[in-house]
Amino acid sequence: MSTAAVTDKRPSTLRAASLPKWTPWAIAAGSIALGLGISAAAGLDSKIQWALIAALLFILGTYGVAARVEGRRQAKDRVATSLVWVAFLLAVIPLVSLIWVTVARGVKVLDIHFLTHSMGIVADTEPGGGIYHAIIGSLEQVGLATLIGAPIGVLTAIYLVEYGRGKLAKAVTFFVDVMTGIPSIVAGLFILSLMLIFEMQPFGFAGSLALAILMMPVVVRSTEEMLKLVPNELREASLALGVPKWRTILKVVLPTSIGGITTGIMLAVARIAGETAPVLLLVFGNPFINNNPFEGAQASLPLYIYQQFANSAGSGAAYDRAWAASLTLIAFVMILNLVARGIARWKAPKTGR
Amino acid sequence: MAKRIDVSGLTAYYGSHKAIEDISMTVEPRSVTAFIGPSGCGKSTFLRTLNRMHEVTPGGRVEGKVLLDDEDLYGTGVDPVSVRREVGMVFQRPNPFPTMSIFDNVAAGLRLNGNYRKSELSDIVEKSLRGANLWNEVKDRLNKPGSGLSGGQQQRLCIARAIAVEPKVLLMDEPCSALDPISTLAIEDLIGELKERFTIVIVTHNMQQAARVSDRTAFFNLAAVGQPGRLIEIDDTERIFSNPSVQATEDYISGRFG
Amino acid sequence: MDISTTTDASPPTPPQHKPAERKRDARGATRPGDRIFLGLSRGSGILLLVIMAAIAGFLTYRAAIAIGKDHGNFLTTFEWNTNVQPPTFGIAVLAFGTIVSSVVAMALAVPVAVAIALFITHYAPRRMSGPVAYVIDLLAAVPSIVYGLWGALVLVPHMNGLFGWLNDFFGWTGLFSWEEGAPRSMLTVGILLAIMILPIITNVSREVFRQVPQMHEEAALALGATRWEVIRMSVLPFGRSGVISASMLGLGRALGETMAVATVLSPSFDIQASLLNPGGGTFAQNIASKFSEANEFGRDALIASGLILFVITLVVNGAARLIIARRAEYSGANA
């Protein structure tokens, strides 16, 4: 049946004038060209400027053309689409740049020597040295923080989901939320105030305490979410068999959600591993290897990056080390993330979704 | 204003899976046509091809023709958005917009399409709510959220929302399956009233319901699990339930399978 | 017809938020195992409360020591001299800088983040949305010090062009006038903070948008809504509280961000009316920068400023929770 025959009879209600599929590309090409032209004519040299002009032209052009041909509703729809795309592209630029620069500059000095040596007596402005001491410090501080923060977090979540009723649970829920918002430097200041009272010098474990505080609410939240996903029927089935509640939690609820809980803990570890501020206040930094987290200043990877950047008066060697340490830190965090996600996918409850 | 639907050679896919195959039928205007058949036979999929909702599902695609008074819904240049304005739909679970009030829910479709004055808008909302037999129950709380209503009321709210934009056809996908018997009865009464104005197609699992509300009944079946669903026969409801021409229909209706 | 009173089908609330009513009873614990387990888990919850109280208590205690000896007005003094006698310090500049940088960051980040979240859930080609979501997820984990390093060494040099341009066209507003100096100003800080919090806001918003029940979107589609109208009618209302809490999460990070500000800003203890002129400071940045040279009294003074930051984040969080609670009540869908 030919469409012409239909449209001859009476105006169609289903058919609307619509722009061909290549229209967005054409408008994009046109606005980029125009943007470049305007920038060149006005003598603007910043890439950011011509990109902004082109983006603006693209959106206005889309609206204008679509409104004329397809009507206002379609035009709005198209503008929304182009805004979403433009936002995506704009945001991708800095994020890609961040990763690119870190990798490109980081590999310069990143080698076995760098990973296995401390700074020792190498001056901050000189080449050489490494991050071994910082890796040790980071591992110890983060490890201790996890030993403290993870169990408390998981238990609190169990309390909230499995037992929590009444005022106490409400208060805990509220303050977990509040705690999530504590800036890391405030957690550092809290431990610092204790250290001032007891007249203590900086040491690794003090940093761990602050990191544990930062970790707890994150673990509580993620564990809570995971426990809530366990269907109530499972619990009831177990309870109905006469299994005591605590064994139901240990044998039914936790195993069902263990994948998600592990993922949550690992993501929390990844988060605190990159914290600088509390470590700066409490652990202070140290160019030498200090294996004892309970006495004396230690280094840590994020702190090392900051100190290489800040104390080196623009020395290229120090910047290189900072980038290399950044790359190491990112790699560590990313591996944790990837493994955590792997676990989550592998252990995910097999529900149709 | 109700329109006739003419389907010919319609096949629908989910990705590479063929869900229904080669369906042809005619749905008369101002009548109720019921789709019955065992689970998975593709009756809901078929219903969703009638207002191009099938293609919203990832991987969903359709071959064949659906003519709405001679105009092909799948013709080139046809805007699915306009199709859905002409062919309204009511879903299995009542789905009022949770953040909108009862009034706004009914007015939602109207507001999309232009500029109604406030008085016009409230006239249409009242008319639609009356049309859905809901007005008396909600007239004092039009500004309350629609999600506060009972399930049956929510479903009638959804019907009011659908008929407010004056579609030509109303598709109902098991509209009563989430409701209790009394609410179901209310919806069935409503369907009887609505067919004066609309072409109605209803998918139902409940054969008594099909017998009660529909003028014509289409029976769908599938040869085996994984095979595409097919239209076995369509006829006047009375005949389908008393003297169907295909054995499978009789077996299904008399409860021998399904 | 009195259907309303007899029908009792549950309203269509999404199941993931409130998994039914929990009929479990804490007092039902009588076995030793139950009692120990309940004790442990409740103890952890209480410990969390104790920690929060301790943070507030000890910070206040040390802050009181410092403020008691402050020769200036703690709230209004434009100075931070804690190593001299008599010590004079105040948080006016820090409060101003913290708020300005966070506002800039939010203004830039929230719309873009919501757009990217929509891009992933509703616009991107299906093959693209998965990887994009994944990468942005990972970017949320990049440590702030790395953002700081990148900001100082890569972003700052690239800001010269934008600053010049803003100064040329919008300099007359005063807000965008640029006198001299490297572009290490509040605007740069705001932009860097925006880039930092973008992944977090995007991720949370994306999750919320993804959870919009299919049936709500289909309701809009079946009325003949365009894609944008579906988003406006179904997705955004459903996701609003989620976006707000995501933004508050981002705001919390922006307010308390230390290293990224410390590396990018060139601080001074005054208030700049223009976003482009270097100067000013934030609470967190000031603590990090002044810490190493501070004596014990100086550290108490920094703790005092930290207390204010703590209070601000508490207020922001509380406000976010209130907003969310109110929305949830109305929508009936987002507990």
TrEMBL record, chain A:
Which terms in the GO cellular component ontology are assigned?
Answer: plasma membrane
**Chain ranges of the ABC transmembrane type-1 domain:** 135-340
Pfam families assigned to the protein according to its UniProt record, in alphabetical order: BPD_transp_1 (PF00528)
CDD domains attached to this UniProt entry: TM_PBP2
Question: PROSITE patterns, from UniProt?
Answer: ABC_TM1
UniProtKB keywords:
Cell membrane, Membrane, Phosphate transport, Transmembrane, Transmembrane helix, Transport
Q: Which GO terms describe its molecular function?
A: phosphate transmembrane transporter activity
| Localisation per UniProt entry | Cell membrane
Q: Give GO terms for biological process.
A: phosphate ion transmembrane transport
For this protein, the parts annotated as crossing the membrane are 22-42, 48-67, 79-101, 142-161, 173-197, 203-220, 252-273, 322-344
Q: Does the keyword Transport apply?
A: yes
Give the record's family classification. Answer: Belongs to the binding-protein-dependent transport system permease family. CysTW subfamily.
User: PANTHER family given for it?
Assistant: PHOSPHATE TRANSPORT SYSTEM PERMEASE PROTEIN PSTA
Function of the protein: Part of the binding-protein-dependent transport system for phosphate; probably responsible for the translocation of the substrate across the membrane.
What NCBIfam families would the database entry show? 3a0107s02c
Protein's name according to its UniProt entry: Phosphate transport system permease protein PstA
Q: Which organism is it from?
A: Streptomyces echinatus
Automatic annotation (TrEMBL), chain B:
GO terms of molecular function: ATP binding; ATP hydrolysis activity; phosphate transmembrane transporter activity
Show the SUPFAM superfamilies listed in the entry.
P-loop containing nucleoside triphosphate hydrolases (SSF52540)
Which residue numbers delimit the ABC transporter domain? 5-247
Alphabetical list of PROSITE patterns matching this protein: ABC_TRANSPORTER_1, ABC_TRANSPORTER_2
- Asked if the Swiss-Prot or TrEMBL record annotates the protein with the keyword Cytoplasm, the reply is no
Q: Which domain of life is it from?
A: Bacteria
InterPro entries the record matches: AAA+_ATPase, ABC_transporter-like_ATP-bd, ABC_transporter-like_CS, P-loop_NTPase, PstB-like
Key word Transport present: yes
Q: Where is the signal peptide?
A: none
What is one Gene Ontology biological process annotated in the Swiss-Prot or TrEMBL record?
phosphate ion transmembrane transport
Q: Coiled coil located at which positions? A: none
What's any one GO cellular component for it? membrane
Instruction: Identify the SMART domains for this entry.
Output: AAA (SM00382)
Q: Which UniProt keywords apply?
A: ATP-binding, Nucleotide-binding, Translocase, Transport
Protein's UniProt name: Phosphate transport system ATP-binding protein
Origin organism is Streptomyces echinatus
The beginning of the lineage is: Bacteria, Bacillati, Actinomycetota, Actinomycetes, Kitasatosporales
Automatic annotation (TrEMBL), chain C:
- Output the SUPFAM superfamilies linked to this UniProt entry: MetI-like
User: Pfam families, per this entry?
Assistant: BPD_transp_1
Q: Where is the composition biased (Basic and acidic residues)?
A: 18-30
Q: Which residues are in the ABC transmembrane type-1 domain?
A: 95-320
This protein's membrane topology, according to the annotation, is: Multi-pass membrane protein
Chain intervals for the UniProt region annotation (Disordered): 1-30
> So where does this one cross the membrane?
45-68, 88-120, 132-156, 185-205, 301-324
Any one of the GO BP annotations: phosphate ion transport
Enumerate the InterPro entries for this protein. MetI-like, MetI-like_sf, Phosphate_PstC, Phosphate_Transport_Permease
Residue ranges annotated as compositionally biased, kind Low complexity, are 1-10
- CDD domains registered for this protein in UniProt: TM_PBP2
Q: Which UniProt keywords apply?
A: Cell membrane, Membrane, Phosphate transport, Transmembrane, Transmembrane helix, Transport
Q: Which GO terms describe its molecular function?
A: phosphate transmembrane transporter activity
Its job: Part of the binding-protein-dependent transport system for phosphate; probably responsible for the translocation of the substrate across the membrane.
Query: What family does this belong to?
Result: Belongs to the binding-protein-dependent transport system permease family. CysTW subfamily.
What name is this protein filed under? Phosphate transport system permease protein
